[in-house]
Structure formats: C-alpha cells, structure tokens
Amino acid sequence: MRDAVIVEAVRTPVGKRNGGLSGIHPADLSAHVLTSLAERSGVDPAVIEDVIWGCVSQVGEQTMDIGRTAALAAGFPETVTGVTVDRQCGSSQQSVHFAAAGLIAGQYDVVVAGGVESMSRVPMGSSSNGQNPFGEKFLARYDGVFPNQGIGAEMIAEQWGFSRTQLDEFAIGSHEKAAAAQSSGRFESQIAPVTLPDGTVISQDEGIRPGGSVEGLAKLKTVFKEDGVIHAGNASQISDGSAALLMTTSEKAAELGLTPIARVHTAVLAGADPVIMLTAPIPATQKALAKSGLKIDEIGAFEVNEAFAPVPMAWLADIEGADVKALNPNGGAIALGHPLGGSGARIMTTLVHHMRDNGIRYGLQTMCEGGGQANATILELL
C-alpha cells in the first residue's frame, strides 16, 4: 500500500516586515529553500515531479504561478513543474495535503510541498486591489458583513471570555518559548541561512522579542475595536519567509537511498462560520482525531497557528485533554511571524524537526484560514 513520507524539511529564517529578507524577490526566496532542500537530501532535482507551492497574495511579484517560477529559479530541470495554491493562511499546509494525496494515489513518486510570502514586498490584501472579493450573494447570506480576521479574533475573545491580560500572557509565553528555542539552537537544523548581496547572513528569526512583559503590552493600542482586546502584541507578525518539504513514498525513498522522517498519518479539512472565521481548527482537530483512531493523549506535540492569541487559546479550551505544555512548544506566529502562504510549511518544518529531536511519535498541526476553514494534519515519526 502506498504512503506519503517526509524525507527533508527546511525553511528560511522568518524575516520581520521591512527586515533582512525584504530585499529578496519572493521567487528567489522560494528558490533558496528548494535548492537547500535538494542539497540537504542529496536528491537529484530531476526526479522531482512537481512543486506544489502555497502563496496567498498572488499579485505583482507573486503572480504568474510562483511555484513553477521558483523551481526554474532554483535551477531545477525544466521538466519539474510547479503549481500555486491558495487556501489563505493554510496554503502551504494544503500543499502538503495535495502532495500526500498525489503520492498515495500514484500520481507522484517524488514531490515538493511548501510555500512563500513576502509581505514586505506584496502587502496583505493587495490582491483584491480595493475591490469586493465576495459578491452580492455571499454578502446577502451574511447580512452584508465583510469578514475581517481581527474582528473575528475579537469575537472569539468575547465568546470564550478571554481578558486582554490573558491574551497578553499567552503572547509573552510565545516569545519566551521561541527565545528559548532560538538561544538553545533548536532552530538551527531546520533553517537555511540567507546570504544577502552585500554579504550579510540572515540566519535567525527576526521577530522574537525576549524580555517582554504584560505591563509593556498593556500600553499598546487595540487595532480593531476601541474597547477591544486585540493589538499588535497579541497578534501574529507581518513577515517574509519560505519553507519546503521533500515528500515521497516509503518504497521510493528506499529506492533512492533516502531516510524518511515522518509519515503523513491523517489529513483533513473543516469549515465553520466565515465571519468569526478563526474557529475551524477546533472541528478540524476533532475530525482528525476521529479519523485517525488516535486519542488526544497519544499526540505529543500540537502546532496551532497563532494568527491571534485567542485562536490557540479557544482551541485549548475546547479540545479536552490537550496538554498545554505540548502546544506550540517552540513558540508560534506571535513571536516567529506569519508569512501567510509560507506559514503552513514553516510550521510543519518546525514540527517535523521537533518530533525527530524529541522522539515524539505523533504530532498534530492545524491552522485557521480565511473563509472559516482549517487544515489539520497528523504526522507519525518514523
């Protein structure tokens, strides 16, 4: 029986807005991780059949099928195709799902899944160009409401009863965990440092801010509601970055002399209210657990994307039995950043390395996505 395994996973550092990676074209940033993936695995790029690439703002420098452009920019043979996927923030996690499905179905033997977003160069929301992306029938169904993720986060905080102090405590915890991971070198094996034209080497995530305090965050102004609780300090950072995973089957890996790290055990989707938008990781997780036959206490690591602090907090409140210590153990997007189309692959790269480094058999990843959707993936360490 065919399966889908991950044999290598690599990412760039996550650059802050207008930071060290902002001068690099997103196709070139993508090419960097593709080249690094081939070098680290030792695989001949000629055996790669497709590059499935997540990208949200497919406009300007990120248009014209950046997945294909990235493969060519990486120097891969012209026989290596590429396709670009948009499932909003979960785009590159969806890329992994598509790759796994293709491998199991026999459409692929070797494939790359990943993604990119350069939010410094292609600002969030620029693809709609000020136009209405919803149309009249959608708006009529939802009483004329244009979904807004920040308002959705405010709605979650209100519905679950989270105070601003609780949200800020969670945000500080994200930075503390990420700072500990960075200082102890836990990220080094997964990061492919980027050398800029002037010789500067970007080798570390730029958004981590150790030493913060709840008192400091209390001084920040809320963004979406004057009397709200969401502000820049308890939301994900606008970022630049890319990540990629080399995937194949166990049989093909043996043929090529590759050692699998993890198997895609279960991959599901869930949909929920698109106005509150950010709650679907809860039913997606429940669906993944039910489909996998695994119990919650068998999962040793959880990655729930920190689009806003209330998202993983609501998830933790509703997923009975989930160990808080296993949630985002190396920090999340509040500290590390959230380069939209690249985040799913960045998170999965971090999860795969964390599982291997700590001998964790099962790990689960889930992300909230525009339209009130979520992917959930369970990986099994091999």
UniProtKB/TrEMBL annotation:
Residues 5-249 form the Thiolase N-terminal domain. GO terms for molecular function: acyltransferase activity, transferring groups other than amino-acyl groups. Keywords: Acyltransferase, Transferase. PROSITE patterns: THIOLASE_2 (PS00737). The active site is at C89 (acyl-thioester intermediate), H338 (proton acceptor), C368 (proton acceptor). InterPro entries: Thiolase, Thiolase-like, Thiolase_C, Thiolase_CS, Thiolase_N. Pfam families: Thiolase_C, Thiolase_N. Residues 259-380 form the Thiolase C-terminal domain. Belongs to the thiolase-like superfamily. Thiolase family. NCBIfam families: AcCoA-C-Actrans (TIGR01930). This is Acetyl-CoA acyltransferase. The lineage of its organism: Bacteria, Bacillati, Actinomycetota, Actinomycetes, Pseudonocardiales.
